Amino acid sequence: MALNERLSKFKQQQERCQTTLSSIAATQASTSKLQISSRSRPVNAPLAPAKQTPAIKFSNDTERLQHINSIRKSPVGAQIKLVIELLYKTRQAYTAEQINDATYVAINSNKAVFDSLRNNLKVQFDGKRFSYKSKHDLNGKDQLLYLIRKYPEGLPVVEVKDAYPTVLEDLQSLKASGDIWWLSSMDSQEDIAYPNDPKSKIKVDADLKQLYREIELPRDMIDIEKELLKNGHKPATDTTKRRAAAQINGQPKKPKAKKKQKQITKRTKLTNAHMPELFDLPGGRNT
Prior knowledge:
Helix 3 packs across helix 5 (111-118). The protein is 45% helix and 6% strand. The protein has ten helices and five strands; from the N terminus they run H-H-H-H-H-E-E-H-E-H-E-E-H-H-H. The strands form two sheets. A three-stranded antiparallel sheet has the order 3-5-4. The protein has helices spanning 2-40, 62-72, 76-90, 96-103, 111-118, 141-149, 167-176, 206-213, 221-230, 239-248; strands at residues 123-125, 130-132, 155-156, 180-183, 192-195. It is mainly alpha-helical and 287 residues long.
């Protein structure tokens, strides 16, 4: 019996020791956590402020939105001009959504703009896409030369100047190579491109050249056309018809910027001296 009592007391002592050890281990773990926390933040440091909800800000894109609003409230003609400029410069076909993305002109939500654009002479509409439409469908210098050769009496440059972006450069190139004659007048809209047939070579005396250059010309293109008709020649231009059409369409002729130069009076002689190329071929050869 004495032995059993001693064993029982020994077991109780072991249980108390185990409980004490567990308590000590828990206390040490808690203390180490507090030490680590105190090291990461100074004792006197203030507590980190709680994250604040960002204040509501107005759109930073206000300027763009104002620009879009100004375009969509502008007159129909101004919106059509923006679209035609896009079609002319890119020479690509656009849907209404693509035009809206590029110019902010909302075609689908503005019937007046849609109808005006669809019926515009410079716009081609296939039922889905809009594209630029010139009078002559040309894609390069070879097609341009082929077209000019179909007009032996001359092709007004105004009819092809918007055929494709580099058409004027190609006209200059064709003139420099001697393939065409490009004759200019005081009115740039009356420039005429004539085919130059290399098979026709005519030698002209110097006296005749000088006589031609001294011929006095009328100051108005209408008078020049009348003189041509009197002599049995059909003018390649119709200035009267063009000016009347411009007035009907509300497109009066724009006045040119005034330049300081000698004014033309009744005593001023206008001659053909500004067209010496009529008698000179590239390379210094005479026609």
